[in-house]
Amino acid sequence: MATDADDAPLLAEEPLRPGSCSRELELREFRDRYVFRSLDGGGAFAVARADGSLRALSPEEAASGSDCKVSRIYGVTGMIRMLAGSYVLVITSRKDAGSYQASTVYHVNSMKFLCCNEAIKHLTSDEKRDEAYFMSLLRIAETTCGLYYSYDRDLTLKNLLEELIEAKTEQFTLKDGPVRINLFSRRCNRRLGTRMWRRGANLEGATANFVETEQLIEYEGLTSSFIQVRGSIPLLWEQIVDLSYKPRPSIIEHEEMTKVVQRHFHDLSQRYGDTLVIDLTDKQGDEGNLSNAFAAEMEKFPDIRYVHFDFHHICGGGNFDNLQALYDETEEAIQKQGYFLMNSKGDILLDQNGVIRSNCIDCLDRTNVTQSFLARKSLDSQLQRMGALSSAESISQSDSINDRFKKLWVEHGDELSLEYAGSYALKGDLVRYGRQTLPGLIKDGLSALSRYYLNNFHDGVRQDALDLISGYYTVSKSSSSPFQIIGYEPYLPVASAIIVGGITVTTFTLSQGLPSYTRLQSNGSYLAPRVTNIASSTVGRSAQHLISSVIFAGLTAGMVALVKANGKQLCSRPRLCGLI
């Protein structure tokens, strides 16, 4: 049956063939529509600016019209519908990030949302307010880092926005042959979010910050792969920000707890086979309580090997080499799992039978140091089997190659940390140098301050942006506004100003109220005044200043106590979705 152009399907029914994606498109922005035209032989389509409806175009239709803004884009990643209409997300710039199985991998440098929301003029004032907030979330999504894609290779299992990818590449020469190392990290989208607002597991067993990292080696026609995974402790737990530097983690009591753990490890066994669990958390304090609960749950699964390694205690003082004790304890299991090896004909010579699952609290800093150590051990074995190294050789014997490998993992850790925590990874020196350095300590301090600020005052909004763009929250006119319940965040700047002002005034009045004998002469000695020269009026002013200091100090202390008591309400909180 014939159909009008308006009703014609935009995409063909058959699956997309490799290489059939358009690498470059022309975007033509008319007053009533957006026109997307492939520049490498593909088709064309239009999106109505009024309501976001799609329409396939003939080559003649796509080329018609001149009163428009013309630009070049590198992909259309999707469309999201909100209260006033739809928004189309396009890739506006990219860069070549390397290759994967002979396919070019690109890094997204910038994106842009195209508005199809002319119906906004028909919204109520409350709906317009909500739409403005949704649009602010889209602007945050435009700046999302760590997005990689390929036009002819499925990197993400489904599509660009369903998993975030991090990729790094390094190349060196061994025995006159080039060795290429690629690190590909695929972040699971089933519990996508920010550091403090996505902890632990959800009821389906999916964990926060779950990342699969593949170390891919290419040498003289041989390809070898070693996969590790990381993920938050697979219990139901939370760590709500409250303005303290390190909020206390707490376990959520739930009757489904054991089933959640079971679902998580069942999923891992289906994907990878046997799992070796390495828990790097502290054995004492709040972390210890969480670690003990994890260990207690793992006792219910005797077929899964669980190893606790108190990283901070054993590797205290930046002694990276103490990780050898962990390797010695788990070497047999790691060797049994092995790695993947394929020859130039595509014949599989070896297969990886299992996976190492590492975690700390954030699955960032300690985890990255540990995974890099295990990856270096595997790299030696892989290169030895591929003939690039003898059985007695190691990449650590070559400073230049070892430094490149360490640099690769440092940058890899930074990228993953930026996506989850918003700052660079800590403990990068342990990976790069095997010890802490003064510049590294300064960098870690700045990163820690950045994490504190982002986690407390920004990540709630960022979590909303991720929930919106990933589809976990669906905008609907029939649903009540998610922004009706407002916290105390708007009052935090006022409270902060009062605290700073109170401290300043207290300090000033206290200095004015001090007796003159506390003041120093230019030679550094104290000037003791003559009692007969102290006038009664001076004593009175000093007493007034001291009383004022006490009053302002009390007000400041009271405001600090009030802020501390309401820390959770003053922090930025997500409004669209719950914690689990």
Entry keywords:
five-stranded antiparallel β-sheet; alpha+beta; disordered N terminus; single chain; nine-stranded mixed β-sheet; globular
Structure, explained:
α7 packs across α8 and α12 packs antiparallel against α13. The longest helix has 30 residues. β1 and β2 form a beta hairpin. It contains 14 helices and 20 strands. With 580 residues, the chain is α+β, with helices and mostly antiparallel strands. The radius of gyration is 29 Å and the shape is globular.
Model regions low in confidence, pLDDT < 50 over at least 5 residues: 1-19, 157-164, 516-520
Q: What is the global morphology?
A: globular
Mean pLDDT: 83
Rg for CA atoms: 29 Å
Report the total helices: 14
Structural class: alpha+beta
Largest sheet: 9 strands, mixed
User: What is the percentage of strand-forming residues?
Assistant: 15-25%
The CA-CA distance between the termini, in Å, is 47 Å
- Per DSSP E runs of 2 or more residues, the count of β-strands stands at 20
DSSP helix fraction: 25-40%
Could you give a short description of this structure?
The chain has helices at 59-63, 125-142, 257-272, 285-298, 311-314, 323-337, 365-386, 399-420, 428-432, 438-457, 459-469, 492-513, 536-565, 567-570, and strands at 25-29, 33-38, 44-48, 54-57, 69-73, 76-81, 86-100, 103-116, 148-149, 164-174, 177-187, 211-219, 222-230, 237-238, 250-251, 275-279, 305-308, 340-342, 348-350, 355-359. It is an alpha+beta fold and 580 residues long.
